[in-house]
Design brief:
alpha/beta, binds pyridoxal-5'-phosphate, seven-stranded mixed sheet
Length: 469
């Protein structure tokens, strides 16, 4: 036994302590602040101690209290960014995944984990209308988008052997920041990402896309791929997928759909995602709208051969020892990642426990909460809605009689004050140059009563930052 070994009794005692802490934390979420009262220096002081040379044994766990206290709690009134709420059955599965410590590189290394991940991915793909797609889990939407565009590049302008060739990628001005990042990392150059204007609903304007492709062809450039958003990060707008799909087929362009925010909502509202299956590749994020604990991104693709063309490059030590099609399967042949944690376990257990129907219903409730907030904003003369509500993101602001800059300043101050007040957590967006308050509902804990708090909180914060009239 070395100094790192735990007895069964010690493990049980520690696990009981952690379980108790987690259970009490979850039980207190309803009344927890949406943001802790913290400052940079206070948090740095709380965790400023160097790592100990001598172990503290069970006393080490005493420090978990401050970690929880200084963290932003996943309360029912958290509406920031696009961040799921952390489903607890999945959290328990994550503990077991760490105990099992499977390295989900290949079947050879992790037979159950590989079979389960392949099954979960195929089954979710079918559930959102993309039957026949396969893929893998990954760190998040950014990684999935990078890998999706790597597939696109290798399929249309192969680069793996001789380096990147010029190629043009198209996306709307509302596209997530991970796309310009991916285009840069793949050596295509951000100057070759054409940001196409959007219509009044923040959806990519297909006529403008068509014109941009024609202009590039006329100039001798090589159009390569279109990235359509299946729920833009700012407003949740869904680009016209069938039309984009048709244009891609016409010009032999790779169609990647960034569905990291929205595409899992196809479980609840499939009609809004007509055309999703036109995609060659599709990013999803189960740690967003499937409420899974981080991290749980996913890349789906129609043709596994395209993924292998992009990623298969195997060192001898990892080569398959079997000719059996199941036993020779390796995720590293289709993914950028080699060492991978057993992410599928949480997704599988969580969906097995609750059933897909419960997730559809929770997504439906999020959509209803967004409509509820949109109505409350519209009914309040001091506020205005800044974009149509396509999915579950609501962008709005407090009106201001002064200049646009004054209005932006007021709303930025309101956001700061809302967060300080700690009853709800909102984030922000910039829409046509305007600062917007933004609430995004991907939270299985939220009830209508929590949504009803948002407008009064914004108005209270506005009174506080405006001072006496
Ligand atoms: C549309 C969209 N794409 C990609 C991402 C990136 O996902 P991740 O944060 O999991 O990398 C986000 C994150 O909010 C998003 O909304």
């Amino acid at each position: 036994m070395n100094g790192l070994t735990l007895s069964e009794g010690e493990f049980r005692a520690l696990a009981a302590q952690v379980t108790d802490l987690a259970a009490r934390y979850l039980a207190g979420l309803d009344n927890a602040r949406a943001y802790p009262q913290v400052s940079g220096s206070a948090v740095a002081r709380a965790f400023g101690e160097a790592l100990p040379e001598q172990g503290l044994q069970a006393r080490a766990l005493d420090a978990l209290g401050p970690v929880l206290a200084h963290s932003r709690a996943p309360t029912p009134r958290f509406f920031g960014y696009v961040l799921g709420s952390g489903e607890p059955v999945a959290a328990l599965a994550d503990l077991l995944a760490s105990v099992l410590n499977q390295n989900v590189t290949a079947w050879r290394s992790a037979p159950a984990a590989v079979a389960l991940e392949r099954q979960v991915v195929a089954s979710l793909a079918a559930a959102i209308g993309c039957a026949g797609f396969t893929g893998s889990l990954c760190g998040g939407g950014s990684m999935a988008n990078l890998m999706g565009l790597a597939l696109a590049r290798e399929a249309r302008r192969p680069a793996n052997e001789r380096g990147a060739q010029p190629g043009v990628v198209y996306a709307s001005t509302e596209v997530h920041m991970s796309i310009p990042k991916a285009v840069a990392l793949l050596g295509l150059g951000r100057a070759n990402l054409r940001l196409i204007r959007v219509d009044e609903d923040y959806r990519l304007d297909v006529a403008a896309l068509r014109a941009a492709v024609a202009a590039d062809l006329a100039a001798g450039n090589a159009p390569l791929a279109v990235v359509a958003s299946g729920g833009t990060v700012n407003t949740g707008s869904i680009d016209p997928l069938p039309e984009i799909g048709a244009l891609c087929r016409e010009h032999n362009l790779w169609m990647h759909v960034d569905g990291a925010y929205g595409a899992l909502a196809a479980l609840a509202v499939p009609a809004q995602f007509a055309g999703l299956a036109e995609a060659d590749s599709l990013s999803l994020d189960a740690h967003k709208w499937l409420y899974q604990p981080l991290d749980c991104g996913m890349l789906l693709y129609r043709d596994a051969a395209a993924a292998r063309a992009a990623f298969s490059f195997t060192g001898d030590y990892a080569k398959s020892l079997s000719a059996d099609p199941l036993e020779s399967f390796a995720f590293f042949d289709e993914s950028l990642e080699l060492s991978r944690r057993f992410r599928a376990l949480k997704l599988w257990l969580s969906v097995r426990y609750h059933g897909l129907g419960a997730f559809r219903a929770a997504i439906g409730a999020d959509l209803a909460h967004a409509r509820q907030l949109a109505r409350a904003v519209t009914d309040q003369a001091q506020l205005e809605l800044l974009a149509p509500v396509a999915l579950s993101a609501v962008c709005f602001r407090h009106r201001h009689p002064g200049s646009a800059a004054d209005c932006d300043r007021l709303n930025a101050a309101i956001l700061g004050r809302v967060i300080e007040r700690g009853r709800v957590y909102l984030s922000n967006a910039t829409l046509r140059g305007q600062f917007a308050l933004r609430a995004c509902f991907v939270n299985h804990r939220t009830q209508a009563a929590d949504v009803a708090v948002i407008v009064p909180e914004v108005l209270a914060a506005a009174r506080e930052v405006s001072g006496p009239a």
